[in-house]
Amino acid sequence: IQDELFSLREDSFVAACREFGRLGIRWRFMTRADTIDRKMIHAALDAGCFEMCIGIESGSQKILNILNKKTTVQDNARVLDLAQTEGLRTMAYLISASPGEDDQTIDETIAFLKAHPADGYGLMIYTPFPGTAVWNDPEKYGFVLPRDYGQYQYLNRQGTGISLHRDRKRAIQLHNRLFEFVKSASSFVRKDRVVV
């Protein structure tokens, strides 16, 4: 299920799980860390769910706040630990080169991932969306943004996101540090690679 709000209402989530179970399909879903609990994980497992994908973005509360994620590092730890305890595979999605990213926030993220490991990781490079604080005031956050959103590539196949940083070399170093950690911590990493 490609909708992180799928788990927003427990009653709807459990009803959907029952239907998936009746159909006998294997499935996975995306969620926010602040919308899932033990009952919902059990309902998903009982219905053939094999993986929960969580957009944790960072192990640094500073970065979560800058991104206006409205979740906490503790929310992310709770749901990763709960899924592991209950036997549900997890995919943790991370964002590198976020506004405010520095060595300390990368260290915090790596320490978080060591303490609360996922089964796999997806690592994306930060891309500001129109209407966000970074889009509206890029200079404040150290970005140089083309105003034609058609120039952006969501999956960052050619490093487009990194090139938006005023200090591209530093952003690449931070991204590559996090990428190398998640690559070594898991046999499964999605969507990104070392940037040169």
UniProtKB/TrEMBL annotation:
SUPFAM superfamilies: Radical SAM enzymes (SSF102114). GO terms for molecular function: catalytic activity; iron-sulfur cluster binding; metal ion binding. SMART domains: Elp3. CDD domains: Radical_SAM. Residues 1-163 form the Radical SAM core domain. Its cofactor is [4Fe-4S] cluster. Signal peptide: none annotated. GO terms for cellular component: cytosol. Keywords: Iron, Iron-sulfur, Metal-binding, S-adenosyl-L-methionine. This is Radical SAM core domain-containing protein.
